[in-house]
Amino acid sequence: MTSMRFSLRRRNIVILATALLFTSCAALEKKQVAPVQQEPKIRNVIVMIGDGMGFPAVGLLDSYAKYAATSPYKAAGIKTALEELADTGVIGFTSHEAANVLVTDSAASSTQIASGKAAGSEMIGVDEQGNPTETILEKAKKMGKATGLVSDTRLTHATPAGFAAHQTARAKENEIAVDLLNNDVDVMLSGGLRYFIPQEASDEATDIHQSLKQRTSGKIKLKSSRKDSRNLIAEAEQKGYAVAFTKQQLEQAAGKKILGLFSSSMMPDALQQRAELAKPERSTPTLKEMTGKALDTLAKHQNGFFLMVEAGQIDQAEHANDAGRLLHEMLVMDETLQVILNWVKQRNDTLLIVLADHNTGGFGFSYNRRNLPEKKELPGLLFKNEPFEPEFNFVPHDVLDKLYAQKMSYQTILEQFDALPKKKQKPAALAKLINENTAFPVTEKEAARALQEERNAYYIKDHEALGSKSFPKIDDFEEFYVYGAGVRADIIGRIQSKFQSVVWATGTHTNEPVPVLTYGPREITAQFGQMMHTTEVGQKAINVLTGN
């Protein structure tokens, strides 16, 4: 009997111990699977592209900000937005060549960034085999996110087009305009009205011309580039877009969908903007203002958004070898980036990617033997018995202030020259315009170089059809200045460069790696801190957005 009691007691103890063990394990298991606080999933991706913004352009901005007497950064004791992003984000490098070639154009590079796929030169949203590519913007739409495109060029230009259109050639801007609208991009702000209005709008006698004239407040040239009667403005309104043609209309635009077209073709360059900025009657928004409106609108979408912002006229300045304009275009880019960065810093659910699609022009400051500094006494011990006498001019800081003092771009100067009566289109008139609007005077003889009547057979093939009758020769590397009569601006740049201590390598693109800077949750941005190709940047961005 005693033995039986002992056996029962032992069995009870074992049962109790087992129960306690299971209870402890269950508690431990419950503790282990308790929810762990994690970083929120990325809801928004913003890509900012400085078209042509290689390291030389970044260096120009940095030098101006730190050393120029006119620098607002220096006066306020603050950094550029680019430097702030570099300090707080992650820096990488990206190569950008198009498929099967060494150099890219903006169409191929935009397509590669947008899709993560290798693209053929001059194609829009097309891979190297000729198939349409699905872009990050289109993937965002499928996920129920809002989408936006902002550019200070025109909406149908290569960079914005590469994110939401699919065409065999970037020149098909009428077709690109249709693609953009069919892709139902929620916010589209830029120039390029001429591709959205019917051909009848060019005729002042038509109702559509008069209606558009009233709606644009007469501020935009109404000349259609379409070859049909399709009115994409009316189609946009039927799709629920608020349409804006002026800064004031953009400010008042409400709702989730906005189409803003603020110029017939390209938007005003940075120097034109600066001249108009303080005028109360200014009707054209800046890149900064368009970007702010896009962020305000897209941020209201409950599922997040994708936004591409292009500072596109950096490239235009470099194609023209216009150093003064380049500085101002970089300032436009930086003030716009500051708006984006300030917005993103308040959140932990957004990835910001800032990069160039390629470099343009091969800009740089270079020391030379012009205007050698005068010898001077130095207080240092080693110079006690001899003056300091430099053998070269290593470029004083005041060159930066002189570049900033430029009032008009070379393009605008030449447009004003071409608007003169034919009998007044003489070298002296061009020299006068250059000297009134830049801080580096040229002589009448030097201005004549940009107006020589020699024809260059290399240019005739591609540009005679455009109506240009004569093309000036450039001194060297003629094959790399391919834009016909536009070479006049490059010649002005070459003439002034010796006074600016500036060198230019080309009038086209170059293929050296360019910067890519990212800001957001560190475990996400860390993957961009390496040497990549634009296809890799694009694929990484897509993976972040889609959660892959």
Describe the protein.
The protein is an alpha/beta fold and 548 residues long. The chain has two domains: 45-363 and 509-546, 3-Layer(aba) Sandwich (Alkaline Phosphatase, subunit A); 412-503, Orthogonal Bundle (Non-ribosomal Peptide Synthetase Peptidyl Carrier Protein, Chain A), CATH 1.10.1200.140. It has 23 helices and 14 strands. The strands form three sheets. Strands 5-6-4-3-7-1-8-13-2-14 form a ten-stranded mixed sheet, sandwiched between helices. Helix 2 (55-67) packs across helix 15, helix 14 (313-319) runs antiparallel to helix 15 and helix 17 (410-418) runs antiparallel to helix 18 (427-437). It starts with a helix and ends with a helix. The model is unreliable at 1-9, 11-40 and 453-469 (pLDDT under 50).
Number of DSSP helical runs: 23
Give the CATH topology of the largest domain: Alkaline Phosphatase, subunit A
Shape: globular
Tally the beta strands: 14
Strand order of the largest sheet: 5-6-4-3-7-1-8-13-2-14
